[in-house]
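User:
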Amino acid sequence: MASSVCAMIVSSNELQMLVLKACRGVGVPMGQSQEVAVALLESPQALGALLPHLAQPMKPAKFDFSEGLTVHDASLLRDFSACADAAVLGVWPVRICGLAACDLAHALARSRGLSIAAAAADVVFTGKDAMRPEVSRGAVVPEIWQQVARFAALTYVPETDASRLGGAGAGLSDND
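Assistant: Predicted structure:
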């Protein structure tokens, strides 16, 4: 008997904000977090591919412009946008070394109107011909949603008396 995964339908705003918060929760800069959120808004089926990238520690990337652009030690969440910018501006070839082409990488490329391919263990930008998907509501697996929500929770301010005295939360009465 085949098991079926029950998907939940979320609004595009819910999906975008959860992904944005999850990326910010692990230290991805705001601009790159927004780009990841937009890419997953357009390709919600890639949400599961986000999880390993959220759990991966970010180390400094090494950018080599001697022949096109080659990037080593890249974080997909932080460094993909710089590589996409280079490709859009006509820098070729663009290669991200040691980063497998996953659903998330393809979603990021599509959201920029680019296409990528896997070359061994690298992501290589192949052109500017990718069609951008239409934005709509997304079907997501509840377990994946909950795992991403745990990363988003890293942005929350801890509930303490000091934080409440400083203005966090609704205070003693929430009547506004």
